[in-house]
Amino acid sequence: RAQEKDDLETLEEKASHPENYNSSKFFADLPLSEKTQKGLAQCNFKQMTEIQRKGIPLALAKRDVLGAAKTGSGKTLTFLIPVTDGLGALIISPTRELAVQIFEVLKKIGKAHTFSAGLIIGGKEFKVEQERIARMNILVCTPGRLLQHMDQSVGFTCDNLQMLILDEADRIMDMGFQNTMNAIIENLPPHRQTLLFSATQTRSVKDLARLSLKDPEYVAVHEKA
Ligand code: ADP
Ligand code: MG
């Protein structure tokens, strides 16, 4: 236990110098817990994609990140890896299907960790979710259902939230969740880290970024012509 704490402090110190990882190509080069390294190796994730090489070291250094890269570029691991090595994260995804996909990857790469993760997407009974939601370290949610719990679930608070992830921000906005997102963000502690990912940079994504991020690092991967 004590050994584990020392190791985590060393990792945190290393992670606070993202410039040292500018030329890292492999997940194994990053300052990640052994548990996360083990989960990645078991999934056969070895070499990072470009958005991962640029984004993960900044996210580990606790910077806010606005990540722009097309579909299929590997944005999910860019936020899930910093999530597994932290505690207290809320991941917002536009649809149930996408939330389930994220949850499945999280379970795989987080296998060696002892955190508890929950899926809050409606469809299941509200009461069942209410019983579980207060005990979770990591929640993967759709916007409407999350706001419903913020309004109605007594034991549920986000006061200790460390990380907010907004995935597929363009689709969240396209689906008309502007007001829902405003209300959610108003309920969150201002001292938190936020990572926002989007395949396209629309006007409404910029509005959401302005509302949710503080002095973000802009990390973009452009398609080669
Ligand atoms: P995006 O969210 O950018 O659309 P995903 O994160 O869903 O993309 O990743 C697309 C696919 O690439 C997934 O099947 C994922 O398992 C795979 N993938 C992501 N990162 C890596 C990696 N570093 N090595 C191998 N495969 C990867
Ligand atoms: Mg994605």
From TrEMBL:
Residues 56-219 form the Helicase ATP-binding domain. A motif (Q motif) lies at residues 25-53. Signal peptide: none annotated. Residues 25-53 form the DEAD-box RNA helicase Q domain. It comes from the Eukaryota. It is found in: Nucleus, Nucleolus. The Q motif is unique to and characteristic of the DEAD box family of RNA helicases and controls ATP binding and hydrolysis. Belongs to the DEAD box helicase family. RNA helicase. This is ATP-dependent RNA helicase. It comes from Thamnidium elegans. The chain holds residues 20 to 244 of 933 of the full protein.
